[in-house]
Specification:
Largest interface: A-B, 68 and 65 residues
Number of strands of chain A: 27
Strand content of chain B: 5-15%
CATH superfamily of the largest domain in chain A: Aldehyde oxidase/xanthine dehydrogenase, molybdopterin binding domain
Strand content of chain A: 15-25%
Oligomer: heterodimer
Structural class of chain B: alpha+beta
Structural class of chain A: alpha+beta
Radius of gyration of chain A: 28 Å
Strand order of the largest sheet of chain A: 10-11-8-18-15-16-17
Shape of chain B: globular
Order of helices and strands of chain B: EEHEEEHHHH
Number of strands of chain B: 5
Number of domains of chain A: 3
Amino acid sequence: MSGHRNTVQAGKSNRQDAVAFTRRHFIIAGATAAGGLAVGIGMLPRAAKALTVAAKPWDGNASSPYDLDAWIAIEPDDSVLIRYARSEMGQGSMTALPMIVAEELQCDWSKVRVEYASPNRSVRENNVYGDMSSVGSHSVRDSRIKLQQVGASARERLIAAAAAQWNVPASECKAADSVVSHAASGRRINYGALASAAAQIKLAAEPAIKAPEHYTFIGKPQPRVDVPLKVNGAAQYAIDTRLPDMVYAAIAQCPVPGGTLASVDEAPLKNMPGIVQVVRLKDAVAVVATDTFWRAKQGLARLHPEWNVGAAGSTDSAQFVKEYRDAALSGTAAVARNDGDVDSALSASGAKTLTSLYEVPYLAHATMEPMNATVHWQGDRLDVWVGTQAADRALKVAAETAGLKPEQVYIHNTFVGGGFGRKSRNDEMVQAIEIAKAINRPVKLVWTREDDMRHDRFRPQAAISFKGALDANGRPTALYIRTAVGSILRSLRINKVENGIEPMAIEGLANNPYQIANTKVECALKNTHIPVAFWRSVGASQNAFAIESFIDEMAHAAGRDPYQFRRAMLGSRPDWIKVLDTVVENSNWGRSLGPGRAQGLAIHECYGTIVGEVAEITISPQGALKVDRITLAADSGHVVNPLGFAEQMEGGVIFALTAALYGKVTVKNGVPEQGNFDTYPMVRLAQAPKIDVHFAMTGGKKWGGAGEPGGAPTAAAVCNAIFALTGKRIRSLPIMDHDLSGSA
Amino acid sequence: MITIDVNGTQHQVDIEPDTPLLWVLRDVIGLTGTKFGCGIAECGACTVHINGRAMRSCSVPIGVLDGATILTIEGLSSDASHPVQKAWVAEDVPQCGYCQSGQIMATVAFLKDFPNPTDADINANITNICRCGTYERLRRAIHRAADLMKA
């Protein structure tokens, strides 16, 4: 039995070196460390146990002799193990979700350890962990009630165990700080001493869970539990997996997505030392080497595979731009919203009309950890180490690929070196399983940066056309929008697209809250051979740029301040108004910034959270744009960990700013051209603006997401600032393609 | 045969001289804290110290390193007590964390040359990519580390 998972601890000061502990060692180490001193040099006490990914596949399924249930184990030393059934890729839910359990469990947070829940256990125990995906900024929103119930049930069972021991009514006992107490007799007992009895107790009825107004722990900022593992190299990512007898694979995939391998001559590898085998896949060829990934990559470079690319091999970006533009401006489209009579309002006498077309390119995810997977296939058992955003789904796909039953498959969750939507589809895992079966040895497959960028499932290209009308008093009377965009659902073949409309394509467009009596939104889905998928903030990544830029155009055409113009159309949405007012107040909106500088405003709702941003920019006479500051206000209703939430807002802004300034994947002869950070640039420290995050929480029933909304308004805020400064309207991204010299 | 000192331990490496130090560290020696990000010295995830200087190990062939002294994230301290590591924890910098070994190693070398760094110094010298966008806290942590090192 072993427990070599990435395990993190909320509040202890010890750190074990990254060596392979057995489960027994781990428990002993935990007990020994219980009295450890806390670190305290201007920081909160915290540390972690750093356990490696197992050198050998696990034979257990992530359970403990001290399990209260599948979610919680309480050890005799009072340490509380909370299992985390999502994937930590930087978004912070490995901290936020256990906080929800701790809120109800009434345990001492400094005694909490967190480890990954096992997808295999979920299969074996009737889907006990449910949906294990980390997508759509949904982990807190979709887990909160369940995890509160988990914590409350455990607490009531601990109380029941104490009450039985003392022979007093449970109603007279209270739980707090990992201790059950009985006020009348003054008796107290620690959770650790109650756990084995509590594990035998079944409650007659589930206890009620707290309403948000009664939270005492949720809502208080907590440092991330995984941070200590990430400052000393201890955190284990999939790419860090090392198994006995493991070999290394590099892969060449058909450069034109959708094509297949025609042939490959192995002769150039004949006398190369350390080459294990060449493996042919349907659309790729892999070279396997003994000792390093580098050797496999060098071997692969000697091969010159031939590909079947078909008609897609003669496509390029100029053609795609024209096709999306045509679909946005003419032809048929599905109607997603139709209020009033847009056509009449646009042609009404005295109406001032505007027409604009906004365009965005394909974008790559470019997670810092390139796609990789390590696989140990043993005929009747499959172990996979992979960075995945959906471990339960990865398990099913792995089982299908290997021809095994789900209970024979072990997905070993690791820390994920960036996801942003890419790792909800583990193409690399499927390849690694096929390679492992072909060579019958444990194998680690790594994609190079170029593989990762060119074989992405991209953010869709899109063209979005607008028409607007204002009456003689500058009031908006009509808004017409048509988006022409790649269908993510069709590309992923995961769902039928009903009536030509998919939610991602129209999000933020069809449900925009601006009160314009005549509003029509149309959707024209159109795919090329380039695969598309979810990319941080998804539809909002292009739709917020387009609609918030066009609303800004309408405000200027009306001669109104862009803040007042928006505010006047938000009568039905006090939450939007609160966000707008908060960001305007904190940014000192409207003040003069001096020559060469300006502000721009945008607001958007994305995954249930409203974010407003004011960008402050400087443009030099030579046309160099610098985004100096982003002031941000957000309303997610409630927030579990305000520190983690603010970090996600900041990260979202940077991610979106990279896209706005530089993001562009172009296609030539069917092949995505950009392959690395030299041609697909990133915002670095020198380009990073100061970011001020302000909370404008409205509470109530709203629970919005955190991971994706932060970046939604960024591109529009920056482009609206560029217009305010220069009069130049940016209608296509990235901004680097526009010449701003002499404009400020 | 090439001899290198990694975190105070001598290693004799018998491998083709064009093999980058990164893959020797990760695949031969087994120190996986140093990360592969781009392979062309663009991102800095693989930053280590070679003879005291911060270098991007994906682009340094092992063949030129005979006798060199290498410091990786694992050798920075035994207990995460280096001031830069403490500052990173105090500012809650890492998100996915994948780039942070490189960010920390770059910062440790940088602060030797710039013990009182300005924001402009930081912008010009810390050029590693963080895709999660932790720059706001990363900048604060660099300043905090500089303060801790003076204390």
